[in-house]
Amino acid sequence: MKLDEALDLVAEVPDFPEPGVLFRDLTPLFGSAAGFAAVVDALGEVIGDRVDRLAAVEARGFVLAAAVGYARGLSVALVRKPGKLPSVAGRVDYALEYGTATLELPAGSVAGDERVAVVDDVLATGGTAAATAELIRGAGAEPTGVAVVLELAALGGRARLAGLPVHALRTL
């Protein structure tokens, strides 16, 4: 399946999780073996060669980064929501398109000399990606960029990631 066809599988869900928000649901994409493979291959290409590890953002980023990591021979650090880790290296609070959230990095999941690419499903306001990059820096590692399936350009997420390359497979 071609990448454009795969990306066309993403569903739009109006008024979720609250009125006025148009949610992009990747579930149909994940349900297509050929579509998922096309997206994983494309993400694997855009992260580049100067990467030692991937940072996967809970929850859809886990699915994407695990597959890309397997395909590229890279390990994955799982960036989690609070209360899910026995040992935390760092914690960051940040703003979302429709609220606030917190992310935590597991202790020992990123080494200080590593180059780490952030992998997630959607770049909206940039809060999640910026918080993840902050966690990576806090662990002494270098964030190398952000790779996402979709970018919602009108929400200006790239501006919060100044200095980091952003690779979106589709910009809306």
From TrEMBL:
State what this protein does: Catalyzes a salvage reaction resulting in the formation of AMP, that is energically less costly than de novo synthesis.
Q: In which pathway does it act?
A: Purine metabolism; AMP biosynthesis via salvage pathway; AMP from adenine: step 1/1
Q: Which Gene3D superfamilies match?
A: 3.40.50.2020
Q: Which residues form the Phosphoribosyltransferase domain?
A: 49-151
Taxonomic path: Bacteria, Bacillati, Actinomycetota, Actinomycetes, Pseudonocardiales
Protein name as annotated? Adenine phosphoribosyltransferase
Could you tell me what reaction this enzyme catalyses?
AMP + diphosphate = 5-phospho-alpha-D-ribose 1-diphosphate + adenine
Q: What is the annotated localization of this protein?
A: Cytoplasm
For this protein, what is the EC number? Answer: 2.4.2.7
